[in-house]
Amino acid sequence: MLEAYAKHKDQAVILPIAGPGGQIFVLLPASETKSVTDQPKTVLSLREVIVQGLLYEYTVSDNMLVSHPTHTKLITTTLTNQVGNLLPGLSNETIRAFEEQWGTDTESFRDVTIWDSMGAIVSRATNYAFVGLPYCRDSALLNAGLGFARALPFSQLLLSFTWKPLRPLASLLFTLPCRYYERRFTQMLIPEIENRLHNIENPTSSLSAGKTSGEVEKKNDFLEWCIEQARESGDPRMCRPRTLAGRILLMNLVSIHTSSLTITNVMLDLASSTPEVLEELRAEVEQVLDQCGGQWTKLALNEMEKLDSVLRESARLNTLVAVGLRRRVVAKEGFTTTPGVHLPCGNFCAVHNLGVVHDPDVYEQPDTFKPFRFVGLRRDVNSDDPNKDHVDRARLTFAATGSDYLAFGNGRQACPGRFFAAGELKLMLAYALMYYDLEIMDPRPRDRWIGILRIPSSNAKLRVRRRKGIIEPSLRSDNLV
Ligand code: HEM
């Protein structure tokens, strides 16, 4: 991909990708990023890339989830708006998960496998937002979700090497691990879903079971929003407990890996930077928390500019999306790029990203991890209009998308979960820095490539120790047990 960028930066090239998510793409020049971004999903579709790339037809057993992916809408309409309300619970789960994974020993350092521990913490916190307590603490449920997300790309890979007419037969064998984890996950969640549906349909029976109307309170989590959405649709298939549980499983699939890979990279970047960088970040977290009365609120997280810059810089440098804006042409008449390259319907295209983030004309010293790069760039935004200043600065935050930063894609089909991810990961990073010492490592463990996926070393160890004399955060209140 770097070679394609160096030699054919301004031309469309054909990029055959092997491995998970592999298809043949027409890699468009970076100058086409805006044009691709601007296309509606009726012309260039991301969804088609996901459905085809992950072979959902075989890897997801409930067809309703593929034909009616209504849960993704709820991310934008509800999850993003609820981040502030979810923060107290998210903080509580994050704190407890860190203690479980990184320990509370203030005397000696211990080795932790960074990838595993980040996966476990992200999974617990995210599932707090998806299914609430006590399920987000159920390791069997969380492991089934993680197992499904790990099994699916391998089933897809085996199927993609299978002759198409044989796929229906081969899938019976190749998707066995997916089916296993899917079944485990859904079976554990179905009783809760049945219970919630029962309570909604029979509000008086919950009251006669000795509860007062105050006790039968509505849950505020993704599952509850899915149930509401299903009931409002009037389609009985949407209310099937298995389908509702499948939606939560697919939410785990799209969110846990991306978020844990991102935060693993951040931790590795920081642990291989300098003690001064860590101290500067801690000072910011302490100062902001002081100003906000010790509360991990949305406002407090927004104020942590340096922390935000670290997340964006790490996501830039270790970009998970080596090629950005992967799309399938779905318009019958095809799609024609500005310079006149015509892509017939059914073709896949993408734009350069790896080349862009390593291009010195785009980023100064592009190969260096500069934790406060975006703090500097944000402060340099200098327009006469103070309101415009604010908007332009916001364009350089972790979750803000742009042509030179495709960590979350760009445009109308950009990642809908990025605001939730930003809140969750900032919280994790702030907490890790405040409550733990990280031993500096040199050099940073090398990443691995699987197809177009770049992943940090899965067995890299971080040496961590609980810091002494740090007061417990105020959010760990008893009512969040
Ligand atoms: C740091 C974590 C994350 C990263 C780096 C990430 C990255 C991405 C990227 C690159 C895309 C493709 C966008 C495009 O091509 O324009 C995407 C799509 C998507 N993301 Fe994320 N994501 C993250 C977290 C999440 C979370 C937490 C959720 C859910 C709460 C989520 C839900 C989705 C969904 C549903 C899509 C597909 C949208 C569609 O079907 O149209 N992501 N994400």
TrEMBL record:
Its cofactor is heme. The keyword Heme applies. Keywords: Heme, Iron, Metal-binding, Monooxygenase, Oxidoreductase. GO terms for biological process: mycotoxin biosynthetic process. Coiled coil: none annotated. It comes from the Eukaryota. Transmembrane segments: none annotated. Heme binds at C415. GO terms for molecular function: heme binding; iron ion binding; monooxygenase activity; oxidoreductase activity, acting on paired donors, with incorporation or reduction of molecular oxygen. The keyword Iron applies. Belongs to the cytochrome P450 family. PANTHER family: CYTOCHROME P450, P450, PUTATIVE (EUROFUNG)-RELATED. This is Cytochrome P450. It comes from Penicillium bovifimosum.
